[in-house]
Design goal:
- The complex is a heterodimer of chains A (184) and B (285).
- By secondary structure, chain A is of the alpha/beta class.
- Chain A has a single domain, classed as Fe-S hydro-lyase, tartrate dehydratase beta-type, catalytic domain (fumarase, Alpha-Beta Barrel), CATH 3.20.130.10.
- In chain A, 25% of the residues lie in helices and 27% in strands.
- Chain B has 2 domains: 101 residues, no CATH class; 126 residues, no CATH class.
- In chain B, α1 runs parallel beside α4 and α2 runs antiparallel to α3.
- The two termini of chain B are 28 Å apart.
- The chains are: A alpha/beta (184), B alpha/beta (285).
- Chains A and B meet through α5 and α6 of A and α3 of B.
């Protein structure tokens, strides 16, 4: 299992080096948004309007952190279920979004859009929010503060641990990993 | 007529204890869960799976030491209240006392507020209330409060089906296996699987939730059901889903079944999926 380090922004060249099953440590700025942020971005795209943030070569982390305690850059910040973003994802990838971090199965439409747009889907460990918070150095709200924990944020992360699930070549680590241990 | 002494329980004590339980459930893993992790760390076949399990154990250590939530989804506040029929709640309304406790616990404990007030409008209530309260009246003069911080991701993967009696035990097994396979990585395996069999539509779901809250490794008092729990846990772990769905031999830490009487036409089965943290704490007042 290869361990790779990448620094954002996530260019096509960097994505080309990532394969399903790779461990990836991410450093730099990542966007943070989940259900309602996706809905709003999608609706803006549908209406032909500008987005509050340029998605080109960005990674978006599906996460709604808990409130930061004094002294913390961010509260606990593990991944949320990616499948809820499936409806909106192909349009965001087409708009330049390069990477997504979350957990859980993606739809076939999303897997196809990852290959077509040369993107990547990475997983961080669900339920390890306190551990992952240690890798977040800064956090600020970019838009949609009214959404509370669901606001659009940016995190500055250092060696944020992820694993490649879907690469731009159609690799699928959930399918490959589970096949090895299925006894039924 | 014999007079029974009524014992008073103050609403403000319920509020204070609910607030404490909300925080402790989110900061501290129960011993049955830590014990289960120690065991599966030696059994997990996948190196990636073992690495994930170690990260989860380390996460729990950080959460407990720093008193921060182990997961950012600090859950629906699901509160089971068993009110002794000889207890008299004074100084306030029980539901209000619980909701106030949840609000204080989540605010002061830096826990995330994850509840929207209306399923269509979807505006966050900002307090993590209302709590999801189940009250039963029991013998005695005590009030027992159990608080479960139930994660939304795992709750979303839960399933219920009204099977036919002819589907039998095999039908129940297949439904449970299907629910766990479909939940996959979304529910943060290794899971605690709560299964409710029997009752009617709503009772089966409640049985499943109660089953999910039973300690890992506890067995149903009915020997047939206890054996089914063992068999199904083995079969769930043969699915290969593994820690975080990355493949492995540990898909569930535990599987508990609760049963109840049902109708001659029915075999309801509900599967409540619980993430690995299985966060709940109880107090008796």
């Amino acid at each position: 299992m290869a361990v790779k380090r990448i620094t954002t922004p996530l260019t096509e060249e960097k994505v080309a080096d990532l394969r399903a099953g790779d461990s990836v440590l991410i450093t730099g700025r990542i966007l943070v948004g989940r259900d309602q942020v996706h809905k709003r971005l999608y609706e803006l795209l549908q209406a032909g309007k500008d987005l509050p943030v340029d998605l080109t070569n960005e990674i978006i982390y599906y996460c709604g952190p808990s409130p930061a305690k004094p002294g913390q850059a961010a509260g606990s910040a593990g991944p949320t279920t990616a499948g809820r973003m499936d409806k909106y994802t192909p349009d965001l990838l087409a708009k330049g979004l390069r990477g997504m971090i979350g957990k859980g199965y993606r739809s076939q439409a999303v897997k196809d859009a990852i290959v077509e747009n040369k993107g990547v889907f990475l997983a961080s460990v669900g339920g390890a929010g306190a551990l992952l918070a240690k890798r977040i150095k800064e956090s600020r709200i970019l838009a949609y503060e009214d959404l509370g924990p669901e606001a659009l944020r940016e995190f500055i992360v250092e060696d944020f641990p992820t694993i490649v699930i879907h690469d731009m070549y159609g690799g699928d680590q959930y399918a490959e990993g589970q096949k090895l241990y299925r006894r039924a | 007529m014999q007079q029974t002494a009524v014992r008073e329980v103050r609403a403000e004590d319920i509020t204070r204890e609910v607030a404490r339980l909300c925080q402790e459930a989110n900061y501290f893993l129960d011993e049955d869960v830590t014990g289960a992790f120690t065991k599966v760390l030696t059994l997990e076949e996948s190196p990636v799976g073992r690495d994930v399990l170690e990260q989860i154990v380390e996460n729990a250590r950080i959460a407990a030491n720093e008193q921060v939530p182990m997961c950012q989804d600090t859950g629906y506040a699901v509160v089971f209240v068993e009110v002794g029929q000889d207890a008299h709640i004074v100084g306030g309304d029980l539901t209000e006392a619980i909701n106030k406790g949840v609000e204080i616990g989540y605010r002061e404990g830096y826990l995330r507020k994850s509840i929207v007030g209306d399923p269509f409008e979807r505006k966050n209530t900002g307090t993590n209330t209302p709590a999801f309260i189940h009250t039963t009246v029991v013998p005695g003069d005590r009030v027992k409060v159990t608080m479960a911080a139930k994660g939304g991701g795992s709750e979303n993967t839960s399933q219920l089906k009204m099977l036919k009696p002819s589907d039998g035990v095999e039908g129940v097994k297949q439904f449970v296996l299907k629910a766990v396979a479909e939940a996959g990585p979304s529910a943060c395996p290794p899971l605690v699987v709560g299964v409710g069999v029997g009752g009617n539509f709503e009772i089966s779901a409640l049985l499943a939730k109660k089953a999910a809250l039973r300690p890992i490794g506890s067995r149903n008092a009915n020997p047939f059901v206890a054996k089914l729990e063992e068999e199904l846990l083995t079969e769930v772990n043969k699915l290969g889903v593994g820690p975080q769905g990355l493949g492995g031999s540990t898909t569930a830490l535990g599987l508990n079944i609760e049963t109840f009487a049902t109708h001659i036409v029915a075999l309801p089965v509900a599967v409540n999926i619980q993430c690995h943290a299985s966060r709940h704490k109880a107090v008796t007042l």
